[in-house]
Amino acid sequence: MKKTVKLWVLLLLLGQSYAFAQNARVTGKVTGPDNQGLPGVNVQVSGTTTGTSSDAAGNFAINAASTASLVFSNIGYVGQTVPINGRSVINIQMAEDQKTLSEVVVVGYGTQRKVDVTGALTAISTKEFAQQPITRLDQVLQGRAAGVQVTQTNGAPGGDARIRIRGANSVLGSNNPLYVVDGFLGADFNFVNPSDIETIQILKDAASTSIYGSRGANGVVIITTKKGAKGLKVNYEGQFSTSEVIKKYDVLPAGEFAEIVNARSTAVGTGLPFTSDQIAQFKQNGGTDWQSLVFRNGSGQQHQITLSGGGDKTTFLVSGNYLNQNGIVNNSGFKRYNLRTNINTQINDKLSFRLNLWGTQSKNHNTLDGGAIVQALAWAPTTPAYGADGQPTFTDPIGSVYRNPLDYLYDQSVDANRSGLNINGGINYKLPIKGLSVDLQYAVNYLNAQNLNLNGKRLSNNVPTASRYSSEQLTLQNTNNLNYDVKIGDHSINAVAVLETQQFTDRNFTASASGLRFPQLGYDNLGLNTAATVASGYQKWTIFSLLGRVNYGYKDKYLVTAAVRRDGSSKFATGNKYSVFPSVAVGWRLSEEEFIKKLNVFSNLKLRGSWGMTGSQAAPAYSTISTYGTAQVAYNNSAATAGVILGNPGNPDLKWETTKQVDVGLEAEFLNGRLHIEADYFKKNTSDLLLNVAIPSYAGGGTQNRNVGEIENKGFEFSIGGTPLISGSFRWETNLNFSTLQNKVLNLGNYPRLGTGTGVGGGMSTTNEFMLIPGEPLGSYWGLNYLGTWKPGEADAAAKQGRVPGDPHYQDLNGDNTITTDDFQIIGRAFPKATGGWNNTFSYKGLTLNVFFNGVFGVDKLNYTRAAAMSGAGDARQFILSEIRDYNRPGNESSNVPAFTKTYQPFTQSSRFIEDGSFIRLKNVSLSYNVPTSFLKNKANIRVFASATNLLTITKYKGPDPESARVGSGTDSAIGIDYGSYPNAKQYTLGINLGF
Amino acid sequence: MKKLLIIGMAAMLTAGCKGYLEEDTTGLLYGGNVLSTQDGLESALTGAYRGLGNQWTYGFLHPSANAAVLGADDVTTHPASNKADWREFDQFNVSTTNQRSGAVYNGCYKAIQGANNVINNYAKTVGTKATIDIIAGEAFFIRGFSYYWLTRFYGNIPLVTAGEYSADLLTIKKSTPAEVYALIVEDLKKAETMLPNARRDPGRPNAGSAKAFLADVYLTMAGWPLKQTDKYDLAAAKAKEVIDNRATYGFALMPTFAEVFANDPAVAIIPESVFQINGFTGGSGTANATYGNTTMPGEEGGWDDMFAELNFFKNFPAGPRKNATFRTAFGLGATTIPWQQSLTKHPYYQKWYIKGNIVTSSISLPTVMMRYPHVLTVYAEAKARGTGGPDQAAYDALNAVRSRGLSSGAKALTPGDGLTAAQFADAVVQERAWEFACERTRWFDLVRLEQVEAANAAKSPEDLQPIKPITKANYWFTLPYTDTSINPNL
Hints:
- Chain B: One of its GO terms (cellular component) is cell outer membrane.
- The structure holds 2 protein chains of 2 kinds.
- Chain A is mainly beta.
- Chain A is about 10% helix and about 45% strand.
- In chain A, the strands form 12 sheets. Chain A has a 22-stranded antiparallel beta barrel.
- In chain A, a hairpin with a 2-residue loop joins strand 13 and strand 14.
- The two termini of chain A are about 40 Å apart.
- By secondary structure, chain B is mostly helical.
- Chain B has 19 helices and 12 strands.
- In chain B, the strands form 6 sheets. Chain B has a two-stranded antiparallel ribbon. Chain B has a two-stranded antiparallel ribbon with strand order 3-7.
- Classes of the chains: A mainly beta, B mainly alpha.
- The interface between A and B is large, with 105 and 115 residues.
């Protein structure tokens, strides 16, 4: 009885409240501090997804319950929550957000008020990628900042990415930016879990980077990780994905392949490998589609749990992340585990303490280029994948001379395991002088690398081999920072003085065993072998640095920054150890000037310029010394003896590579921040360029590191962003960035030109694929100019070269009727001329749609994957791609696909296989939905999303993926060769975020 | 607290600097004293051998030299397939970037660098003098051997005797064959006195090896390009020295030709081997790829890299040698097809099949750089072309080789057959062609006797032809682009 009464009362109450809460129309006007109408102000009914925004005059209209509250928000203004209290008209005035003005950004060794910044730096906010399925830092950086080029050179999960800030300065050294994570210099970006990132700051010009001296030449990416905040919070993110190959090569079907192989045999007078019966059967039953045996649908998942909280004095954050991806090549994958924790405590008013600790482990399995991918286009479609014994076919009588793609997939393990631990702690103490504080930080970074390889019986010519490489690297860093920050009247001063040391040691060993008696035990039981070798090594380098910087601002209008760093490095000999890197920058905030204020156009307008020097100790440790290496020789048929062999000659005169950079930039903000533009022009000049200069074979071969020459990089960077459309609850935010880059070798000392190679073109390249020539950019392809085939009317000219019509016709530069290396010339450019990104976010109530394009323009690729399958070179004996259908033959003499002759001499290192690698890619499209918090009684946040990566690619490139290439990400003198590189995948992801 | 911090920082400032930037060379091997010990010298000698055998990189453990001598009339390659770099030699169109001849070039110079280092330092090495002399003797042999290969392939070459790198090496000029041969002779003469009679390992030379190569060098010096015909007598005398002392050096002719090419990985060396570069699958880059795949037909899982020229095969005298030299029916199983019905329609070289017909490109077998019958033929030819013409010993030497190759009952040659000295010498050269078919010998005979054009004119029209008329310019390869692009004086 009692229960029923209660129920009735409850229902009645609910009914009443429903009656009270009936929606009514509320109108009003939002004004700014100047009493003018404020357009574009977001007006939302608190706790719902109902929202609108103010029109050009600042007026708005919305339906809301009379008991509800309205939330007003606008960039640069202090948000307000106004209870309706039954009113139908609500006018409010919004105040400028002083916090925005005092917004600080992270710069090297400190922070700065954003408005005071004089250097060129780009911040990437976590908001920009929150809508995308990001697993790695390179995906965060790609396409989002002008002047930053990111290329996913290896499309495998956990694969290599090339990240460049304002181009490449160094030929020998790494051109990777310096990553600074929570103050630790030289962090491995692969280990950074994007979910842990609070802010990313990209330092581009010398004024920003010279504070990093010898390590700043390639730009700096400063990452600050998330810290805990008061109150307990738990957050879970989960993602599930599936992926597939973007495109496959178009390969001849077995029947047609057999016909063409027969046609070629007839033409050169060898026997016919296929009978007409066999061809008929292939036509009927098809053959082997090797690509579909190599590629598969990949899958992946990622889980992240973050727990944060704390009290008034102490906060903490703990996060754990697990990533598991199976690549689109069979039996390849990547796993990563991350644990991060930090504690911050304010011991008293003056003293604070912080500790960051993170551990990570990553495991790559068979994420290789080449191998199976190359062989899939070399093995004949007429050869069955498996033999009668159920094993993969051992040899291919027609196509490849080498191993079955399936053996590359399943008869080898190439595993790279990395375990890292970083402990980074510091104390900060405010000294009795106002504005002066001291900060001491110590960091220990430990990396354990294990490379575990197994080459099974089938892949290894019956000599199964396994090896294990183990390396322990320890980096110790100590940073002592004295900071002074005051504002006296119109003068603001921020100064910093730092003493920093860093020490790196690496101890490693390799054990390898061949003739394994139990190959299935692999690298985990190396002892059971017929022969074993061991090796070990040690490396150490140290840097000792002193640096200082002063920022001075007058009336927040005129800004000057001066910085200097002196670095000493153990890598150079006495006399060349030290170098000094100064910089100076000025800024002028025009928007603070009365004459600009009067225009009432700009909410911010700043002109800035900088000059400075940075360096690179691009040479590896011990380059000043000539050392011996180890080599083995067999004196009988049952053992190998180790001996010593002279290595590359050392160069005691080595010194720092120095980069000078000027930068001019303009920042402008219009319409109260709804539109912002930033433009920069920069010019970098790198001198004392460190190069690997080839030593002739007769002098022992190899290379010597030398300071030779000069390189220039210059370009424009432009970004425009804003909120072009706000209509009711609909909002479109967009950000477009575009940058150009011109790279040029200015001189090479006494050398007219210097070749640089890659070592990836085995069997394809006959000499260095790239040539450095003054006046030409880095990454200039070197080869023969392919003029098509000799045509019937050119029989005489062809005969002079010993050729017949239908044979490949290469430009004979010196006219000696012989095609030699003297006829080599620049045939393409591997460096993109321009890159861009366009990020769009459309939101409507709880729905958010993100559309992100990324583009690379003006770049050539050398497609050796196609060359191998189209020229009877390398391991492939036959032509396998469907484009061979067009081969030059009577009746088809105009074709530029060479004929089948005995005088056929292919040069794969030619313009025939240079392809335009420009592309525009729909990098991400995702749709997410925020479940209304009211629905969850404000106790939780739930977001679900679905996303597609690399959904659409517009390109002329003939390979599966214009982005991937087969050269390590560190080098730039030789990039852009695609020889079976692991392609990027199309990926579809579903995800959920839960927050409590 | 504050004081503590200041003290801490001051401590850092002072402690940080001193010695902090000194390079720590723990674990590095460098400097002049590396070769001051006998172990160091021995290790450097092993490093010198490395130049002669680094599979797929340089030296003679993969078919590099084999491809480079394809201009001779005994071996050819596939007219299509992926053999463009092989065809360059057979068609006399060798590019300066060809990786096959380049592998010989790079390997020989790497060996020379190592040998130079030993030769320039052994006098200062502390240890047992007898052993140090042997080490140095091997180094002299390696250097002479390497320059011999280089000058025969390239003619005028940089002559380097320094081990350590110095910048002036970047601009040195080429030396003439005469200058190069002078050093070769000098080195081999030192080697023959410093080396022991018994080799220390199967893969090392003994005094007999040095003498045998010296005899071969003299024979070559007597022909093109030097044409120092007085060297025929020196060649004959040196070869005779080896023949007379064959037991001392452990050289002997095996009873049957087939046994020579049993190619059993369990046998480290056969008595016919005068000098060899050993292969071992268990080391790093030490396996041998000149057997198996490279000379097998596609029908047997081979690579069709090299096989017999048609007329050479046709003219080859029948007998046990022909049977053991060629593979004329293909198929590893029960059914075989005759070569005429194969895809390439050529007989292949059985010589380089591994025992049990294993299909592989990595095996523990040696690359034999000279066989004892080579010494016999050097004597026979040199004696015939030298003072006094062929003597009975010359006939005996030739017959020993010839009779083993021919069917039993074949008549031995005698002075009574009425051959002139020149005819006898030509008979020896022809005998060498059969005996050492596909053993990187024929090409050098054709070059020194200036018979390259004639031999190629006699090829079957069904074999690959030179793409342009052969001239003396085709007798040598142009120096590799890798080096000419660095040193403008080459």
